[in-house]
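We treat protein structure as text, and this decision shapes the records that our systems exchange. The tokens are whole numbers drawn from a learned vocabulary of local backbone shapes. Below, we set out a record of this kind in full and without editing:
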Amino acid sequence: MKKALASWSGMRRYLERDMLALRLRGRVQYRCTTYPGMDGDCVFEIWIDGALAKRCALETVNSYFLEVGRKKTAAFYGKSEYWNEFWLLLNRICVQDRPAHSDDEFCEALSCYRNQKIQKSLSAENPLVRMFAILDRRVGKRTLLQEMDALERQPPWLRAFYLLRFSAEGLAPLQNTEIF
């Protein structure tokens, strides 16, 4: 388990019960999975209405790099060269410029969100921080109405979280549309 998340059950309770908007309680679940041999890495997932909405793990980022042609398959390299290229890409392509995120990036965003005011989180450069913030119970309807103007500037994966919140609060014309 990541050092930043010493107690996942406590963190999950914080995210799902303490900080989640009332109208989203029971609809949004956060999960953390570790597997033997993962060297302390985790797979963080956000589920909406029983469907996977976001996964944060090194493998998710690696798959994204392969899908968009930023990285060659392991057949072209030895194992160490393959992963060296991965780490270079991860450091070069910043978190706001890709839809896939690592478990470390999830933890960093969660820490940032927890340690700053909600208004700062809503306008954070990091889209993962904005994701946590838009689901937060401290964001009221007036603020949500202001955030509707920012919807088009959000990455496509994050727009779905905004639309979920708008719809849950009765602010979006998408109430009968399946978002996830």
